[in-house]
Amino acid sequence: ERLHNDFQFIDVGRQDxxxxxxxxxRRDFGEIYEPYTEDQVKNQSHRCLExxxxxxxxxxxxxxxxxxxxxxxxxxxIMEAADLCHQTNTLPEVCGRVCPQDxxxxxxxxxxxxxxxxxxxxxxxxxxxxxxxxxxxxxxSKVVWTDKKVAVIGAGPAGLGCADVLARNGVRxxxxxxxPEIGGLxxxxxxxxxxxxxxxxxxxxxxxxxxxxxxxxxxxxTDITMAQLMADYDAVFMGMGTYTYMKGGFPGEDLPGVxxxxxxxxxxxxxxxxxxxxxxxxxxxxxxxxxxxGGGDTAxxxxxxxxxxxxxxxxxxxxxxxxxxxxSRREVANAKEEGVQFLFNRQPIAIVGDNRVEGVKVVTTxxxxxxxxxxxxxxxxPGSEEILPADRVLIAFGFRPSPASWFGQHEIRIxxxxxxxxxxxxxxKFQTSNPKVFAGGDMVRGSxxxxxxxxxxxxxxxxxxxxxxx
Length: 470
Ligand code: FAD
Ligand code: SF4
Prior knowledge:
- The structure is a single chain.
- Strand 1 (149-153), helix 10 and strand 2 (172-176) form a beta-alpha-beta unit.
- The mean pLDDT is 95.
- The two termini are 43 Å apart.
- The strands form four sheets. This protein has a five-stranded parallel sheet, with helices on one face. A five-stranded parallel sheet has the order 6-14-7-8-9.
- The protein has 17 helices and 16 strands.
- It is α/β, with parallel strands linked by helices.
- It is globular and about 70 Å long.
- Flavin-adenine dinucleotide binds next to helix 10, helix 13, helix 14 and helix 17.
- The site of iron/sulfur cluster (SF4) has 15 residues, from helix 7 and helix 9.
């Protein structure tokens, strides 16, 4: 039993978990953070002020009971903390690793004002990893199984969030995914240095033991039809993500040596995981001068994967300034440490080269008036064009939805940018225009975050339970 210290937040500073040495990080694909020791995590979680009105909870998209589980950790009660984490979050060990905490929970922590926010994300990761190692399992003893079953299309965070809540309420979920492992972009997108793949394998075992069935390597529309799912199940949830790559719309994007971000990242994952079907699919940047275009999480992952593959140099060009980058600041800092060169306020206007890429023509920008989303628009400065030499260019401009050909046949409406219409505010949350079909995650809100996809999947499960009157 520890003594309570009201001034722990002053006596003990914020301390993130230790990182591996830069040397190791530059060639190793494993996660870069070491786990907290028991002492470290107790000291850090004890820094929480237990504010009466915890802003961190509100800023967390799944509204985790953060101060409550921090207190349990400070007291050494990990199993109870893991139970509490799972009341609101389907994948706490994943969110602890990949949420942009500086913009979410930790950004809202009262101590973020000069003292250093409580390390909420790293503690969430510690709780789940430690509880799993101690044999923690979700308590399903009170679940009474009904005769209802729901097909879930997509084993990404949205589909998994939905399946989790359905199973805990006695409705059998059967999850279909075209890929050979669960996780969606958690497995086939986000690199191992942020999220080791064993995390999802372990999760699959836990979900399976909870009564969730997975049918992997099964694409809806090819291996099984939507009509079949509609006939066999009481409802269908779609969490299929967004997979159309955004283009820059400038000359040279089709030159050999230019690649979209996701095929590059997926080819690297497939090689590391042994899922590679044809060695010709692997996109190597070893020994090459790489230019990455974009400033979000995907761009950061391309930068850092290129470093680990042994690129001769990695330059990231972004059209706004550092302040206005959309991704997590922690990952930008990690990329800089690992040797990525950043060129801010540079807008690409062409990819140049004779038969293969030789460089990227960029123009310097200054920030002008705010656009409709309140972000200041980059405006080119005439005469500032320059060419960045490059052997490989990786384009990370984001994703648009990829509506399935069978949506129309099943009266599933999409909006003008291709997103599935499934509003939260209606009688049955996240129901589409087809009453039996629900949807959530990136395919509804556009590319966003793991934690928001989990939230929508969980909320949609509530909508489905109401619809099924369970
Ligand atoms: P997805 O994760 O895309 O999952 C959709 C699943 O549906 C896939 O497994 C797909 O195979 C399956 N599917 C689609 N169509 C079919 C079909 N017809 N039949 C069967 N299966 C189908 N977010 C963060 O919070 N932090 C990060 O650090 C972060 N980094 C990212 C890095 C990269 C490179 C990318 C691309 C995204 C990143 N994101 C990050 C965003 C985050 O990964 C997504 O917002 C989130 O995964 C969306 O979840 P989802 O369930 O909606 O879709
Ligand atoms: Fe923070 Fe994400 Fe965990 Fe919420 S889920 S507490 S935002 S790390």
